Amino acid sequence: MRTTINYVLAVVLIILGILIAVTGWYIFPVCEMEGKFIETKAGKLMPMPCGYTARAETGLGALVALAGIGLFAFRSADSRRAFGVMTTGLGVVVILIPTLLIGMCSAPDHICRIATAPALILLGGITVIVGLYLIVARNTAIE
Amino acid sequence: MLGIIGKNIRHRPFRNGILILAFAFIAASIFSGQYLLHGASESIEIGVSRMGADLIVVPERYRMEAMNIILRGEPSTFFFDASVMDQVALVEGVEKVAPNLYIASLDASCCDVPVQLIAIEPERDFTLKPWLAQSQNRPLEKDDIIVGSRIVGDIGTPLQFYGHTFNIAQRMEPAGMGVDCSIFMNFDDAFVMADESPEKAVQALLLPEEKVSAVLVKVKDVRETETVAARIEASVPKVRVLTPSNLLGRISSQLTSTTNFLDLAAFFATLISLPLIALVSIMAANERRREIGVLRALGATRGIIFRLILGESVIIAVIGAVIGVVFSWCVLILFQNYISVVVQIPLIMPNLTTLAWAAGTTLALTIGIGGIAALYPAIHYSRMEPYDAMRSGDL
Questions:
Q1: Any chain B CB within 8 A of the CB of A12?
Q2: Rounded to the nearest 10 degrees, what angle do helices A77-96 and A49-73 cross at?
Q3: Chain A from 80 to 109: CB within 8 A of any B CB
Q4: What distance separates the 2 farthest-apart alpha carbons in chain A?
Q5: Integer Cα distance of B328 and B324 in angstroms
Q6: Distance between CA A128 and CA B62 in Å, rounded?
Q7: Confidence at B256, pLDDT banded by 50, 70, 90
Q8: Domain residue extents for chain B
Q9: B264 in contact with A, Cβ within 8 Å
Q10: SS3 call for B219
Q11: Is the reported ipTM for this assembly greater than 0.95?
């Protein structure tokens, strides 16, 4: 039973990782996917802040998915707790990137502000909950 | 007893986990429907009170455009003769009138799309004056503007419209309505902006003299609002009167379809879950027939067995309902603006009393569903004799 719970949590983490990675590009595409860029005085097109957020979230999503894969491979209670700590930290950063660290566009009606950021906060929150569960759940060395 | 119920629930984590998810889905659907309904109604109330008027008189042919300005902030420019204001002031039951000018902006640095500029007459205005007196203790000065909550820019920063530079003097609290995307300015500043526009703006703004876009009305007795509205429409030609009730009516079709969908989802989830939960309760009780027999033999009454089986289902329902309410609450708060744009309804978070009431109702309904589903196995197995239960049961 414990093994099955581990597998379920591993699958949940992989799905969460994929969702975090693709949200900014495909589910709620950020401004640059609609062709909106910042134009410098030299005429160069630069991504808006939401573009950088989407790029950072792609990396974080990959790491969350990697934690899920790791949970499949390493089944000891200590590994599980370690993945829990890693996942909790990643979840917090997933939330902090669109809110504090990089942010989104300043216009309140941009899709990145009303949809992409909330979706990433929600996914980050779920990741934190899964991570905390992995840390605090009863010692579950896998038979 | 709670200890036994807790152990029973933990003993079958997957089966009970799925049941908890089913209850969570039912609770989330019921709660979301109520949240949207109350959120939209309260948004309309706050939006209309922010306008500060009991009634808004607009040109007959621009009724929809006016509604879209108020509800969604979709910019529009229209006018009717300013003499309408004097005619409205003479209608019985009208206490005060004040003119508004609606001007759709060109693109501005604050926003990707044009926004609604609303010019007010400081001498007659009764909508923003009391609010301004409260919030900044001084009237609107030359080139001062008040911006809605969704306009970019801090207080004191300049914003340009039609080539004229204004200063943000104050920012309004979110209302979930068109006022969030609107900018308020003085009549005089609006005319200066229009005069300068041929030279400074890419497109000239034409503001005809002796014209207004809307007349805001304060009635003597708020209980007579609808009657006064009917009197204005009867005595002043070619105008329509917008009241809070017909603004709510305008969004009710969109709102109804959304809440109907959520109610339908809750109904079908209940329809599917109810027999499933009943079946799982029967299976769970059947698996524990010997345990029930032992408990009965040790002196447990029928009532205890009944409460044990019913309690398990109710606790699962409570856990599911709490998860459903909390999760849907988080999703609705996070995606509030997105839902408002997609469903095209004004939306804010309802006040805490309403939310507590909605959460309580949801919890009660979900627990009720859990209780009903477990009623048959609870009655059936509590009536079983200890010997029969132990003989045929397997642990």
A1: no
A2: 170
A3: 106-109
A4: 63
A5: 6
A6: 51
A7: confident
A8: 2-44+251-392, 55-242
A9: no
A10: strand
A11: no
